[in-house]
Amino acid sequence: MPEVTEKEAVEYASDLDAAKVSDCTFNMHRNFLSMLWRILLVKPGIVSANPWDCIETRKLKKNEGRKRALEQPQ
């Protein structure tokens, strides 16, 4: 874990982009990893910085992925 840098964090975020995950899923991954590193920062010697802080959360689109009523032609 100490070897994970901002470069790896950015690469992971790019992999999530390539997989076309939703904004919500992207944020869940980013937030979990950021929280984990925040916890590890409390213990001396495990990690020295939180590389996930450089990754910005995505703005969620309203009603993304929700079912919509059928339109007349459908």
Q: Can you summarize this structure?
A:
By secondary structure, the protein is an all-alpha fold. The chain contains two helices and no strands.
Can you describe this structure?
The chain contains 2 helices and no strands. With 74 residues, the chain is mainly alpha-helical. The mean pLDDT is 83. The termini are far apart.
Major sheet details = none
Task: Spell the H/E element sequence.
Answer: HH
Radius of gyration, Cα only, in angstroms? 17 Å
Q: Termini, distance in Å?
A: 51 Å
Question: Given the helix and strand composition, which structural class is it?
Answer: mainly alpha
Which geometry do the CA atoms define? elongated
Record the SSE blueprint.
Layout: H1 6-18, H2 23-42
Primary descriptors:
74 residues
